[in-house]
Design brief:
Shape: elongated
Radius of gyration: 20 Å
Number of strands: 4
Helix content: 25-40%
Structural class: alpha+beta
Order of helices and strands: HHHEHEEHE
Distance between the termini: 13 Å
Strand content: 15-25%
Largest sheet: 4 strands, antiparallel
């Protein structure tokens, strides 16, 4: 990966709808050269996904919740089971297996506190391996980004 690839990625990560022509004009390469580089970046996994970032509030998901989850036991099977459970939960936007006091850190988007309570009943109280969890309610979305460059 060279500086041109990094520049393509820098621009593309903020707007995946940029055409090869627009990127070519900005970067100073031909459109076919940009297309070839984009294909390689996709094929190698440097570009994992091209997604639409939706507005939670416009879709009735007014509340962002950060949850730290501590498990009872950390066997490989129990960890895999919890990971699988979180991947299937539509409220979970991000899930990280982490070091520190918490085994997992979750970012959820929910409609309101009632929906979060229902989530805890189903996924935490209904899961025998969750020993405890702590919750932080986000008051203001100061920065939300998946940008790397």
């Amino acid at each position: 990966m060279d500086n041109i690839d990094l520049e393509i990625l820098r621009r593309f990560q903020s707007n995946a709808r940029l055409t090869a022509d627009a990127l070519a004009e900005d970067i100073g390469l031909s459109s076919p050269a940009i297309q070839k580089r984009l294909k390689k970046l996709r094929d190698t996994g440097a570009i994992e996904k091209e997604i639409a970032v939706l507005s939670p509030s416009k879709l009735g998901r007014e509340m962002t919740v950060i949850v730290q989850v501590m498990l009872e036991r950390e066997s490989r099977q129990k960890l895999d089971d919890f990971k699988r459970l979180m991947r299937r939960a539509p409220e979970v936007q991000q899930c990280y297996y982490a070091t520190g006091e918490a085994d997992f850190v979750l970012i959820l988007v929910v409609k309101d506190i009632k929906e979060y309570e229902e989530f805890t009943q189903e996924y935490f109280f209904g899961e025998s391996n969750v020993s405890r969890f702590t919750t932080s309610i986000v008051m203001d979305r100061v920065k939300v980004s998946l940008d790397i460059l």
